[in-house]
Structures are given as structure tokens and as C-alpha cells.
Amino acid sequence: MFSGKDKDYDQARKSINNPYGNGVHRPEGVTAENTTKTSKVLETLGLSQKRRKDMAAAKAAYLDGEKEFERAKGLEGTARRDSFRLASKHFKKSADNWQSSQLAQEAMMMQAESLFFAEDYYKAEQTYAGLVKEYPRNPYLDQIDARRFEIGDFWLKTNAANPKSFMSVNFTDNKLPWNDTAGHGKRALENVRLDSPIGKLSDDATMRLAINYYEKQDWEMAATTFGELRMTYPDSEHQFKAQFLELQSLLAAYMGPEYSDAHLIEADKRAKAIVKQFPKDAQTKQLELRESMATIRYLMAEREWHSAEYRYLQGENLSSRMYLEQLIEKYPDTKFAELARERLNEVQGKPDRPPQKFAPLVKLFNADNDDRTWKRPVFDDK
Q1: CA distance 140 to 107
Q2: 320 CB contacts (<8 Å, ≥6 apart)?
């Protein structure tokens, strides 16, 4: 009953494991997999280019590329770079002659490697990106991530050593993109994270990006990216350093008592979590952590004092007393506690609320009565 299905399954499995078996070609690329009836009609009408399949030319070009690649290894200087560039052209020709095939996948990888060793980093990074886009399940992902990480890191370091504006154009150095070196470096690292979210270097790429933001003093993005590493890669070796730098970034991103306390609250959580989660590592940063905790406590007290002072100046003495008493209770060891005690003595005996400047309107609408008619439910039995 099932013998026919078993036979079909065996044939399908063999074709997957050996796409060259029995002379049958199985397309491997996204382009081939997304082929539709419409695309076939467009090919027939000559409105789109038909996928090439010249197996002999592809294999011959691949062999030429291999020979040139091996020859380039023994050369030095300009001759070495020129030889690797020539090898990349052979591999590109091979991929173009048998598109969406296993050989094309290998040829694109060797093309990218040739460009990398020729130190044409921008072209190499573009080729790696094209390979991952066309063959997202290729077996070279770890190696591709390593190359792209190295290129992205190199671009960020180059820009840090010699910053240039976005409008500056590069025409001479093949190691660098044509403009915006830092932006291309961040993009390369972002692609490592996006294309291989569970790859070996995903957490390293995230950490490198976060440190770049930290060095640029972009505190918001630094805190966000360190936080992404903390939540996305809990087993990463960078966890302690990432959380410690996230704490510092959050404190630096805090803008003062006039603004949101979200960064301050999160920094307080991070400081407590670090001590609890990394007791040994926390000992190496004991002074910095104590200073951060003291800073958080000081800034929290400052917020309470700022709220109390604002209400005091508005004549809202009842509300001001509430904040002052809360400040003294929660932060008695800060300088704001002493200021709060002095302010409490000043507001004693003063009216709870400021004088009403619209007394006639209040009387007219009976607004001083808590049982206000407009606050009653629409359907009230009474």
C-alpha cells in the first residue's frame, strides 16, 4: 500500500543529497525556487533574462578560478592582489554560467574569498551578502559571518582613527566603501545579526555595535543595543560587560529631573541584577558599581526634591509636604533630606492649596463640592 510512496520519498531524498546524481539538475537558489508561471511567460516573451545553464562553461571557469587562486597564494604585494582579482572573475563567470546551482553557490563563495584576499573589502562584503540572499541555507554561514565581522570591525576602526564626513567620497582605497565608512561598518555587523541570528558571531556583532555606540557617546543606542544582547543572548560570554556598560549608558542617557525617570529606574534594576547575577565579576568592578548605585540614589532624591519644590512654588503646600516627607523617609542620608526638613518648617501652617482666583465661577458651578453633578453616572436611579 505504501511501497509507491516510499519509492518517491527515496528518490526525493537522493535528489536533495546529490543534486548532480543521474544527470538531474536541482536548482538551489532563491531565484529558482521563486520561479512562477508569470516569470516563465516573461522569459518566453524576452522581457526577462532566462537563467543560464551552461554546465561545461561553468565547470571550466571554476577550474580556471581554482588554478589562479592557488597561484595567488604564492605571490606577494600587487601581484598577489591582481591574481586574486583575476580568480574572482573566473569564479563569477562560473556562477553566471550555471545559475541557481550547487556549483554557482560554491563559485560565489570562492569569488567572495578571492576579493577578500585581494583586499577589495567592499566588493567582497557585497558578494558575501549576495550569496546569503540567494542561498540562505548555504554551508558557509559561519565563515561568511567571520569575514563580514572582520570587514565591519575594520571599517569602524578605520573611521574612528580618521573620521570623515558622509559627503567624503573614496576613489582610491579598495579596502573602504566609496563613502560613509562607519555606516557601512555598522550595516555589515547588523547583517551578521539579521542573517544568522543564532550564529556563532551574532552576539559578538551585537557587542561590537553596542561598543561603537558607547564610544560615540550615543547613549540611547548604546543602552538599547547592550539591552538587546542581554535579552537575546543570555549565554553570551559578553553578558557581564554588556550589562555593566548598559548601566553606565543608562545613567549617561538620563537627562535630569525635568524629564522621564525611565532610564534611572532601569539603571537601578541593572545595578541590582549585576551584583546578584555576577557576584565574582562584580567584585572586579566594586568601586564603579558602588559609585553608580550612589549616583542613582542621589538622582532619585533629586527628583523628589524637584517635585516638592515645583509644588511649593505653585502654592500646593499639601502636595509639597507629601513629597518632602517621602524624600526624608527614603533618602535620609542625602543633602536633599536636610533641604527637605528646612522646607517642611517653612510650609507648616500655610494653606494646603493656593488661593482660588476664580471664586465666583467655583461658587456658580458648586465646584468645591465633591458631589458634582457632571461626575455622576449617566443613568442614576437616584
Answers
A1: 12
A2: 308, 309, 311, 312, 343, 347
Residue range 146-167: average pLDDT?
Answer: 93
As a whole number of Å, the end-to-end CA separation of the chain is 79
Q: Specify the residue for cell string 556563532.
A: 200
DSSP labels, 41-55: HHHHTTSSPPPPB-H
Size of the chain in residues: 382
Single-letter residue type at 278: F
List the one residue out of 352, 348, 308 whose CA is nearest residue 327. Answer: 308
**H or E segment to which residue 351 belongs:** none
Q: Return the C-alpha cell found at 317.
A: 503646600
Position 1 scores a pLDDT of 42
Query: Can you tell me the distance from the alpha carbon of 254 to that of 267, in angstroms, rounded to the nearest whole number?
Result: 10
What's the alpha-carbon Rg for the chain, to the nearest Å? 33
Average the pLDDT over 83-99 and give the result. Answer: 95
State the average pLDDT over residues 214-223: 96
- Which residues touch 336 (CB under 8 Å, ≥6 apart)? 301, 302, 304, 305, 327
Quickly tell me which residue has 541584577 as its cell: 273
Higher-confidence position of 6 and 159: 159
Instruction: Kindly give the residue spans of alpha helices, DSSP state H, lying in the chain.
Output: 3-17, 30-33, 37-44, 55-73, 77-97, 102-117, 121-134, 141-161, 181-195, 202-215, 219-232, 239-253, 262-277, 279-284, 286-313, 317-330, 335-347, 359-365
Using CA atoms, how far apart are residues 346 and 200, in angstroms rounded to an integer?
Answer: 63
Q: What is the pTM of this model?
A: 0.80
Buried b (16+ CB within 10 A) or exposed e, 133-144: ebbeebebbeeb
Could you report the per-residue pLDDT of 292-328, keeping only the tens digit for each?
Answer: 999 999 999 999 999 999 998 888 888 888 999 999 9
Question: What is each CA distance from 374 to 362, 363, 365, 367, 379, in whole angstroms?
Answer: 14, 15, 10, 10, 12
Q: pLDDT band at residue 11, thresholds of 50, 70 and 90? A: low
